[in-house]
Amino acid sequence: MTEVSNIVAATSKRVPWNKGKIIGAKPPLRPKHVWFIRTRLQVDGRTRDLALFNLAIDSKLRGCDVVALKIDDIAPGGYAADRASVWQKKTGLPVRFELTEATRQAVDDYVKTTGKKPGDYLFIGRRGSNRSLTTRQYARLLAEWTTSIGLEPHLFGTHSLRRTKATLIYRRTGNLRAVSRDRGRRRARDSGTG
Predict the structure, then answer these.
(1) Pick the CATH number of 27-176 from 2.40.10.270, 1.10.443.10, 1.25.40.20, 1.10.630.10
(2) Are 29 and 38 in contact (CB under 8 A)?
């Protein structure tokens, strides 16, 4: 009987895996945070990170879709296009998005310095030139960016970048329908899959 009570006592002292962790949706970045991160990346001359950060915000894509972007998706003629269309892995549906002037410039600078060719992944990681950046590497970069401007990295995730532009649009217009249409949900709802 004492063995059973010792086992119960040992298991009751176990700390839950999520104790002290923030659960649920992580908040989007505020405009001042976006500005600080962009400025920091520009000052440090980190062209890849600046292009990745800007594309993540403009495209509103999930992390797995951002890291899987190829040159043909964003810069088919060697220069970043005004608009792009990408097939999402999760939904299997296309999403169209516009690239701001700052994003196009960042992508053009990055493509020029790296000499990327059509068919290449836009962002490559440590696994080799024929493999894309992993979502984990992307998350580590985001943690580094947020830490560099004094934010707590555990408060923000890759989905925070996806939500940032949508939040700005909603605050500016107050129109939730415009936000969902902008994120590609209208097509998913109309086709019966979302």
Answers:
(1) 1.10.443.10
(2) no
